[in-house]
Amino acid sequence: MSLSERMLKIDRRIIFLVIGLCTLLPLLYPVGLPIRISPEVRSIYDYVEALPERSVFLLSIDFDPASKPELHPQAIALLRHAFRKNLRVVAMTLWVSGTGMADQLLTQVAHEMGKENGKDYVFLGWSPGGPAVIINMGQDLYTAFPSDYGGKATKGLSVLEGVQSLKDVAYAISLGAGNPGVEAWYVYGKDKYKFELGGGCTGVMAPGLYPLLRSGQLNGLIGGLRGAAEYESLIEQKGRAVAGMDAQSATHFAIIVLVAICNLFYFSLRQQQGRRHT
Amino acid sequence: MATGLTLFIFSFLYRDNPLFKLAEHLYVGVSVGYTIVKTVDSVVVSLIYKPIVDQGEFTLLIPVAIGLLMLTRYVPKAAWMSRYAFAFIVGLGSGLAIPRTISSFILKQIEDTVRPVLSMAGSDGLTFSMNLLNPSSNLNAIIILIGVSSVLFYFFFSIEHSGPGKAVARTGIIFLMIAFGAAFGYTVMARMSLLIGRLTDLIEFSDASYGRPTLWLVILTVGALFALSRRSAASASSSD
C-alpha cells in the first residue's frame, strides 16, 4: 500500500484529535489575532449608537441552548451596548425552548449594568403562534403579551411608556437560529409595520441572509461567533467570542491544510493508478 | 452536569457507546419535557384558563374548540372533524404567508437585482442607467446580474444546453459552486464555534473553584470507555 493510499484511509479519529487540539490549544494559550470589523456588523453598531436615549430597542432572542455558543455572545454584546446607551430594552423570544435561557441572559446583563426590571428593560417571554405573534405585536403589543415573563401586566410598565405596537419601536434585532427568526421578523414585521430591523444569526444561516442585507431589507447582520467577536470589539468589551477567535482561525487553518493534503494524496493516487494501467 | 454530558456526547467521536446514548436520550427527554411544561404554562394556564376563569373571556372558547377538534384524529369515527381545524390552520397560514413571502422574497429581490441596471428616475420613465464610467455603477451589480441570469438558465431544461447555451449553463454551475462553497465554509465555521463553546465551558469548569469537575469527569469517562471496550472484547472472545 502506497503512502497516498494509507493517508486516504487514515483513522478519522486522528483528524478529530488534530481538530480538537487546534481548538483547545489557542483557547488555553491565546495569541490575540487582529479582528477586522465587517461593514454589516458596523452598520448595526452605528445604528444603535445613533439612537437617542430612552429609545425603544426590541431584541428577539429566537434561539435555544443548542445555538448558545454562537448567539449568546451576540446577545450579551448587543444588550451591553443598548444598556450603555440607556435605551429601553424590550426582549422576547419566538422559541419556547429558549425562554429560560433568554430570561437568564437578560437578567445577568441588566444586573451587571445596574438596570431595573420594568423601568429600563422587560422580558416579555414567549407567546404561541410563531410569525403570527409578530403580526399581533404589530397591531397591539399588549394583546400579544398581556403580561411579562414574571406575570406582571405589561400595560402600565414604564419601560413600555408610549409603546402601543411595533411601529413605536426605534430598532429591532432578531437573533435567530432558524424559523421563526430573522426572516420572519422581516416578512411579517418590518415589511408590514415599517421599523428598522437588524439581524444576528448562526454561521450556517448567514449566506442565506446576505441577499436581504444587500437589498436593504436588513440594515445589518451579525453572522455567527465571528460577528459576535466583531461586535464585542466595537463596544470594547471583549468576551467569549473574541476569546474564541484564535481557536476559530486555528481550526480553519487546520481544515484548509487537511483539505489540501487530501487533494494532494488523491491526485497522487490517481496518477499512480494511471501509471499502473499504462 | 453540563461538563459530564458534554464529555459523554464527545465520547461518540471515539465510538458509539452507552454513555453517549445516555446523554442523547437525556437531551431529547429534557428538551421535550421543558417544551411541554413551558407550553402548558404559557398557553393553557396563562392564555386560556386564567382569562376564561378569572376574567370571563368566553370568546376564547372558540379557538379552544377548534384546537380540540385536532384531537379527534385519535378517534377514527370522529376523525373527519379534525379537517375543520386543519382547514382553518392551512387557510390562515397560507393567507398570512403567501402575500408576504411573495412581496419579501420574490418581488423585493427581483427589484434589487434589476434596480442598479434600470432606473425610474427622470421624466423619461424607465431608463437604462448602467454605465461603467459612472462611479455609481458597481461591479457587484454586473456580477449579480450575470449570476442570477446564468443560474436561472441552468435550471431551464426546455432547450438543450449546447453551443452558447452550454457556456451560459457552465457559468451558472460556477456560480452555484461558489454559493455552495460559501455555504459550506460558513457551516464549518458554525460547527467549529459550537466546539469552541463547549471547550470554553470545559476549560472554565476545570478551575479549582468549581472542584475541577472537568478533570474528574474526563478520568471517569475515559475509564468507563476503557471498561466498556474491555467488556465487549471479552464477550466477543467468549462467543467465539
SSE blueprint:
The complex is a heterodimer of chains A (278) and B (240).
Chain A: H1 3-8, H2 12-28, H3 39-50, E1 56-62, H4 68-84, E2 88-93, H5 99-112, E3 121-126, H6 131-139, H7 141-144, E4 171-176, H8 182-193, E5 197-201, H9 206-214, E6 221-223, H10 224-234, H11 240-277
Parallel strand pairs in A: 1-2, 1-4, 2-3, 4-5, 5-6
Chain B: H1 2-10, H2 18-55, H3 61-69, H4 82-114, E1 118-119, E2 127-128, H5 139-154, H6 164-204, H7 213-239
Antiparallel strand pairs in B: 1-2
Helix pairs in contact in B: 1-2, 1-7, 3-4, 5-6
Q: What form of chain A results from the Cα inertia axes?
A: elongated
Query: What is the name of the CATH topology of the largest domain in chain A?
Result: Rossmann fold
**Count of alpha/pi helices of chain B:** 7
The gyration radius over C-alpha positions of chain A equals: 23 Å
Q: Report the principal-axis shape of chain B.
A: extended
CATH superfamily of the largest domain in chain A: MTH777-like
Distance between the termini of chain B: 39 Å
Q: From the structure provided, what is the oligomeric state, counting identical versus distinct chains?
A: heterodimer
Q: Which residue ranges of chain A are poorly predicted, with pLDDT under 50 across at least 5 consecutive positions? A: none
Measured distance between first and last alpha carbons of chain A: 19 Å
CATH architecture of the largest domain in chain A: 3-Layer(aba) Sandwich
Task: Report strand order across the widest sheet of chain A.
Answer: 3-2-1-4-5-6
Sheet having the most strands of chain B: 2 strands, antiparallel
Number of strands of chain A: 6
The assigned structural class of chain B equals: mainly alpha
